[in-house]
Amino acid sequence: MEYKEYEKENAPLMVFLHGGGVSGWMWDEQIKYFSLRYHCIVPDLPAHGTSQNQHFSIKDSAEKIIELINLKRSEQPVIVIGFSLGAQILVNILSIAPGLINYAIINSALTRPMEYSLKLLKPLFKLSFPLTKMRSFAKLQSKVLYIQENQFEHYVKETTEITFDSFMQVMKENMSFQVPKKYSSSKSKILVTVGEKEKKMMHKSAFELVQKNSNSTGIMIPKVGHGISLANPNYFNKMLEDWVSMGNIPENAKLIEQ
Asked: Each residue of 7-43: pLDDT tens digit?
């Protein structure tokens, strides 16, 4: 698994796990902000970006990230931020290695299995997959995903290069994911976030993650859909910094009760 590293001596380790269909570049604004004070690592997950030729599974990806953290960590705290597919991997890491991470930020993780829907949708995915190779379709999708103009070429390149088999493997893993039983035993301090405009299943997923670990705090971020770190990087960066350093959450966020 390929990754970029922004070293800062004797600093807390901060690892960013991207969502499906993009790669490490989605965190560019976070790296600009945090790499001055943190030791930052940004992997390209298997089947994505510079790791696109590797087979993807959530379990294997989680194990690779654990190995990377153990290789790079110091005595300083470990902070891991995951979005969407990366957030599912983060939940898996918390279950496999309950004492590894000090702070976990789980952004928009789907935890409601949709395997039956995947079977129904597979023929549709196959028919529509050629659309992903079209620049005009990518432009429409980029708006939904809050991808900025300066990131669009990265997005187009990666969507045109992904194979159907890799795409389906990622979709299968994403749509069949559920919270592992050992997630509740994680000792990490956990922040679960979901956008107010996300689908109901995402709201239910956030609630489930909060319910299943007593160390978690959940918030709903107003006026945003799937992708707060891209939609409003300044808001996201301040939210992350304030929560890690002081345990504070944004004043306009709605608390998800346990």
From this structure: 988 899 999 999 999 999 999 999 999 999 999 999 9
Q: Give the Cα separation of 193 and 202 in Å (integer).
A: 10
The first and second tokens of residue 130, run together, are: 């050629």
Q: Note the pLDDT tens digit of each residue in 86-128.
A: 999 999 999 999 999 999 999 999 999 886 677 777 787 888 8
Contact call for residues 136 and 156 (beta carbons, < 8 A): no
Question: In Å, how far are 54, 67, 100, 186 from 96, measured between CA atoms?
Answer: 22, 12, 9, 9
Which tokens sit at 212? Answer: 């299943």
Residues in Cβ contact with 157 at an 8 Å cutoff, skipping those fewer than 6 apart: none
Residue 138: per-residue pLDDT:
87
Q: Other C-beta atoms within 10 Å of 123: how many? A: 9
What's the alpha-carbon Rg for the chain, to the nearest Å? 17
Give the per-residue SS3 of the chain.
Answer: CCEEEECCCCCCEEEEECCCCCCHHHHHHHHHHHCCCCEEEEECCCCCHHHCCCCCCHHHHHHHHHHHHHHHCCCCCEEEEEECHHHHHHHHHHHHCCCCCCEEEEECCCCCCCHHHHHHHHHHHHHHHHHHHCHHHHHHHHHHCCCCHHHHHHHHHHHHHCCHHHHHHHHHHHHHCCCCHHHHHCCCEEEEEEECCCCHHHHHHHHHHHHCCCCEEEEEECCCCCCHHHHCHHHHHHHHHHHHHHCCCCCCCEEECC
Q: Tokens for 84, please give them.
A: 């969407």
Q: Rounded to whole angstroms, how far apart are CA atoms 81 and 107? A: 8
